Amino acid sequence: MSPKREKDAITGVETTGHEWDGISELDNPLPRWWLWIFYGCVVWSIGYWVVMPAWPLLTDYTRGIWGHSQRQQVVADLDALKASRGAIGEKLTSMTLEQIEADPTAQQAALAWGKSAFGDNCATCHGAGGGGAKGYPNLNDDVWLWGGSLEDIRHTITVGVRSTSEETRQSQMPAFGRDGILEPAQIRDLSEYVLNLSGRSTDPEAVGRATQLFADNCSTCHGADGKGNRAFGAPNLTDADWLYGGDKQTIIETITKARSGVMPTWGGRLDAPTINALAVYVHSLGGGE
């Protein structure tokens, strides 16, 4: 049975027949301003269907009388950007990196181009200003695993680190604990030896026990003095700069499990002038050699 509709004694408006706790729902009309907006939206939507791409079809979509396409607009914008960059792009490609830095006009263009590319591709890991984070190198200092010259930086950007390029920068520290190469006690002694290299060990007996361990297992890459080797991407263990942390527990974790950070191979993803501009920009951050 349908609800009983009555007129409200106070307002004279007919009710909907619904009542809650003695309160009746009035059947008031929608506000006129709301209705006009609603009708306007309906008219607008019909016009939009006519002039703009709107309805999906089985193999295509309705094009609309204006034939507008956001995809085509993006392509056109990219083409316009490439055209505007064409001359400077050719210049950045044809000049050496040293020539770019020596030419104020080319350098200014490279820095602007490189900063934009850095923000789009590199800042997620290295930070907006290149300051890095745990596991991501600081590009503002003078500590470079693979070298900080312009050419070194460009090569690293191009081939990446432990990435997909056949020429990628490659280094692999053994997982001495996980793979059973060293016992936990030996790893603890070795961590003291590493701390001693930077003058921070408090256990000379452990350092003495680990001297031969370091010579047998670590010196090939890090050097007998622990100062690293860029040919292997092996870090200097005598300074205060640590990619993953230099406290004893973190050093033990590194020796036990090893680290295998990856930097993408940007060659093929980015064109030559962009990579050159990135190299110049990173070199300018303060740590370039």
In a nutshell, what does this entry contain?
It is built from eleven helices and two strands; from the N terminus they run ββααααααααααα.
- What level of helicity do the residues show? 40-55%
Give me the CATH superfamily of the domain at 71-169 and 263-284.
Cytochrome c-like domain
Mean pLDDT: 91
Task: Please count the beta strands (DSSP E, at least 2 residues each).
Answer: 2
Report on this structure.
The chain has 289 residues and is mostly helical. Among the domains are: 121 residues, Cytochrome c-like domain (Cytochrome Bc1 Complex, Chain D, domain 2, Orthogonal Bundle); 74 residues, Orthogonal Bundle (Cytochrome Bc1 Complex, Chain D, domain 2), CATH 1.10.760. It is built from eleven helices and two strands. The model has no long low-confidence stretch (mean pLDDT 91).
